[in-house]
Design brief:
The complex is a heterodimer of chains A (183) and B (640).
Chain A (H helix, E strand, L loop, with lengths): L2 H26 L1 H74 L5 H17 L2 E4 L11 E7 L9 E6 L1 E4 L2 E4 L1 E6 L1
Chain B lengths: L2 E6 L4 E8 L2 E4 L9 E2 L2 E3 L5 E3 L1 H5 L8 E2 L14 H6 L3 E4 L5 E5 L2 E3 L1 H20 L3 E8 L5 H13 L3 E7 H8 L8 E8 L4 E9 L2 E10 L4 H20 L7 H17 L5 E12 L2 E10 H7 L1 H6 L1 H13 L7 E5 L6 H11 L12 H13 L16 E5 L3 E6 L7 E7 L9 E7 L9 E8 L12 E7 L5 E7 L5 E6 L7 H13 L1 H31 L5 H17 L5 H37 L6 H22 L1
Parallel strand pairs in B: 1-11, 11-12, 13-18
Antiparallel strand pairs in B: 1-2, 2-3, 2-4, 5-6, 5-7, 8-9, 9-10, 13-14, 14-15, 16-17, 19-20, 19-22, 21-24, 22-23, 24-25, 25-26
Helix pairs in contact in B: 3-4, 5-12, 6-7, 14-15, 14-16, 15-16, 16-17
The chains are: A alpha+beta (183), B alpha+beta (640).
């Protein structure tokens, strides 16, 4: 702490010396002062030029980014369309067979079973798999509880009925299985 | 320093967004959802669940699943008796009379529960952005008092977020539409969400928002509308089939989903089919629900609910009037229910104003919060708020076609270059005609200027390479350069910004292009067919000369006839005929060149068999063959 004032004094002295030196220089050669100002001006102009360059660069980069984002949005929409088309194409044969099943005169459970497996096979080709968790422990990460009821012989917290199967896509839950949980 | 995000901490759902490069983006949660249910659950095993997962297990764990916590934020227990009676979990009074939630065997203050939601949002946002999120702007209803705001701020702090600011939801929605840019504007914000309805009248003066009045209904939202449709479906089914679907939980769930889907669909169509096969069964077998719902019927079913929005709007307008706001300038819609046409019509009737559109009403508050967050973080620098080109820029090419270089709505500054060539043999100069507009043909677009690039050395058409560069700076000044890549000769033109087009003119140019899209496409197709036909005839002719005697005279005559046929229709307006004859010419030429190459190959094979019987020396001749194949392709390309 006690050092501080002394240091300040020292700085002041230095400043005075610098001023004196400048005055001397100015007296000795007025042209050098003009040169110094000119040099400052030059530097300033250089700085201004640099500033303009950087601003332009920042603007260009920002604009490139925005245009890139617009392109990504377009590409994403296109990719979404292609993905949807792929899914639809996989499902169409099963739909055709469903129509055939309806056209036939007699109800045919075996035929309908085949159509269903055709559907699931098509989904599997796209990485979608179904699961039916009956008897498993209820897990809200995979299942959605529709109701809870006391069931004889079932351990509390297990799935006693599957209303609707669940589906995974590439390991992630596409739709949780809708289940009844034992109380 | 981490990112600052905007969070709409809602009663039913929460949503978050961030400003990326000046543009707000909604952040998806870990489950891939754009909104996250504001639900927290404590399981038997002591686990804490937040969001969708918590919602899924609610029926198995009703007393430990906390939702609608926002209704208790910063409130005394004595004030919230009514809310308490609605929720299945226990609400008690804390040491200072504050409402507290009892769940998972512990007492939690509402800010603690909200913090759990915020914590999940923060974690998911960090995973999405790949960087730390350490601060946020959180929104609250305009009617929130100081205690409620403080409670929200506390929740943020508990979640490890530096809450940069708490802003009003209607203010955020207005920011999302950029309404803060105008001064002295009065805005009515109509927010019909999942379970709450809020109306606010705001006034902006010098970029500062002031809430003039608020009104609403704490228990009116999308859920009520769904229920009205479900009730109708249940009644109809009972009348026709004699079975009460309301007793069947799974059937009811399916009805709710179908009702919501129908409601959304009826926002854009007049009628929708509600189809629920195997909804139930009785002794006679399975029963299906198959019915039609029209928009008019839905409006009728939800008539009472639609009526309930009227008074709060009138009230808010009347209260604002008392404070000197006689007229609103803007109407902003928030909440998924505002997609319903009947709701929009009601708002229009009540306010006499066309509401703002464009931002997803489920996300508009989070988006506005993200914009505010960006402003506070200094992300929004005026010099980096860039313009877009309102119209496409390009040049005129052969056949009067406009070739686009910079598409409309491209952010500037930007540059784009493309290499063009000459259309005639020994063409000494090219004219660069700079155009602006959306039409396919040059003549219908606005001419911005033209210049010549001269001194192109004599060369066959298509050989010289002229690079045309477009460069628009941040001020909209367009520089067009044309450079002969062969000689390095360059010519340019500068076109001043604005080009004197008003917004209306730009709009009319765009709609004009849309109106003429069909004609223009046909015209362009014709021009392109002509170009291609002309080019094919030219190439074929030249190659016949090059090939000389290696083409037999019969083939030569055949090709010459085909060339003549192409030239005959060049001036006709029949694009299909021009294309057909061009193709015929190309096919004829292909046949000839194929025969020639086969002959050449046969000769070569013979030579190979003669000269070098051993396998090693065969290799080079094979390579040669490959090269020739490539050559043939190049010839093909040249012709087509």
């Amino acid at each position: 702490m006690s050092d501080e004032p002394r240091q300040q004094e020292a700085e002041e002295v230095e400043e005075v010396e610098v001023e004196a030196a400048e005055v001397q220089a100015a007296e000795a050669a007025p042209s050098t002062e003009a040169e110094a100002v000119e040099q400052d001006l030059g530097e300033l102009q250089e700085k201004a030029r640099e500033r303009d360059e950087y601003l332009a660069l920042a603007q260009r980069t920002q604009a490139d980014f925005e245009n890139y984002r617009k392109r990504v949005a377009r590409d994403t929409a296109a990719a979404e369309g292609r993905g949807m088309a792929r899914l639809a194409k996989e499902l169409l044969p099963a739909l055709d067979n469903l129509a055939r099943a309806l056209e036939s005169d007699a109800p045919d459970p075996e035929g309908l079973r085949l159509v269903r497996s055709e559907f699931t096979a098509a989904l599997e080709r796209l990485g979608i798999e179904e699961f039916s968790p009956e008897g498993e422990r209820f897990d809200p990460n995979l299942h959605e509880a529709m109701a809870q009821q006391p069931v004889d012989g079932a351990e509390s917290g297990t799935v006693v009925e599957v209303y609707e199967r669940g589906y995974r896509i590439d390991g992630n839950v596409l739709r949780p299985a809708r289940v009844v949980v034992a109380q | 320093m981490g990112k600052t995000i905007g969070i709409d901490l809602g009663t039913t759902n929460s949503c978050m967004a961030v400003l990326e490069g000046g543009e707000p983006t909604v952040i998806e949660n870990a489950e891939g959802g754009r909104t996250t249910p504001s639900v927290v659950a404590f399981t038997e095993s002591g686990e804490r669940l937040v969001g969708t997962v918590a919602k899924r297990q609610a029926v198995t764990n009703p007393t430990n699943t906390v939702f609608s916590i926002k209704r208790f934020m910063g409130r005394k227990e004595a004030e919230v008796k009514e809310e308490e009676s609605i929720v299945p979990y226990t609400v008690v009074a804390g040491p200072n009379g504050d409402a507290r939630v009892e769940a998972g065997g512990k007492q939690y203050s509402p800010p603690e529960i909200s913090a759990m939601i915020l914590q999940k949002l923060k974690t998911d946002a960090e995973a999405y952005l790949g960087e730390t999120v350490d601060s946020a702007v959180i929104t609250v209803p305009a009617y929130f008092n100081d205690d409620q705001r403080q409670a929200t701020k506390d929740a943020g702090k508990v979640a490890g977020l530096d809450v940069k600011r708490i802003i009003n939801e209607p203010t955020a929605a207005s920011l999302a539409y950029g309404l803060d840019k105008d001064t002295d504007q009065k805005i009515l914000v109509f927010d019909l969400g999942g379970g709450t309805f809020d109306v606010s009248v705001l006034e902006i003066a010098d970029g500062v928002f002031e809430v003039k009045s608020t009104s609403g209904d704490n228990h009116l939202g999308g859920d009520n509308f769904d229920k009205a449709i479900v009730d109708w479906l249940v009644k109809e089914f009972k009348a026709s089939q004699g079975i009460d679907l309301a007793q069947d939980k799974m059937a009811l769930q399916r009805l709710y989903e179908a009702a919501e889907k129908a409601k959304i669909e009826l926002s854009t169509t007049q009628e929708t089919q509600i189809n629920l096969p195997f909804i139930t069964a009785d002794s006679s077998g399975p029963k299906h629900l198959d019915t039609r719902l029209t928009r008019a019927k839905m409006t009728e079913l939800t008539g009472d609910l639609l009526k309930r929005v009227e008074n709060p709007v009138r009230q808010a307008l009347a209260d604002a009037k008392d404070k000197g706001v006689t007229d609103v300038d803007h109407v902003v819609l928030v909440g998924g229910m505002t997609r319903m046409p009947a709701v929009q019509e009601r708002v229009k009737e009540l306010t006499g104003k066309e509401p703002h559109r464009g931002v997803n009403p489920d996300e508009v508050v989070a988006v506005g919060a993200a914009i505010q967050a960006g402003v506070l973080a200094g992300d929004v620098k005026d010099v980096l708020l860039l313009d877009v080109t309102p119209l496409t820029l390009g040049i005129e090419t052969k056949g009067g076609v406009m070739t686009k270089l910079i598409e409309r709505n491209t952010t500037i500054p930007t540059r784009k270059g493309e290499v063009f060539s000459t259309a005639e043999d020994n063409q000494p100069s090219v004219e660069i005609h700079v155009l602006q507009g959306e039409r396919e043909m040059a003549q219908y677009n606005k001419s911005l200027g033209k210049f010549q690039l001269t001194g192109i050395p004599p060369a066959p058409r298509g050989i010289p390479q002229i690079e045309v560069g477009f460069d628009i700076d941040a001020n909209g000044i367009l520089n067009v350069t044309a450079k002969d890549l062969g000689t390095g000769k360059e010519q340019k033109i500068e076109i001043k910004a604005g080009s004197g087009l008003s917004e209306d003119e730009i709009k009319s140019m765009v709609t004009d292009a849309e109106a003429h899209a069909e004609d223009d496409r046909a015209q362009r197709e014709l021009a392109e067919a002509r170009n291609e036909a002309e080019n094919a005839a030219y190439q074929a002719e030249r190659q016949l000369v090059d090939l000389g005697d290696s083409v037999d005279s019969a083939s030569k005559e055949q090709i010459e006839a085909a060339i003549k046929e192409v030239r005959e229709v060049l001036e006709s307006d029949d694009a299909a005929e021009i294309k057909a004859r061009t193709e015929a010419l190309q096919t004829a030429f292909h046949a000839v060149s194929q025969a020639m190459y086969e002959k050449a190959q046969a000769e070569q094979a013979e030579a190979g068999a003669d000269g070098s019987p051993n396998g090693a020396t065969d290799a080079p001749s094979e390579e040669e063959e490959e090269e020739e194949v490539v050559d043939a392709e190049v010839v093909d390309e040249g012709k087509s």
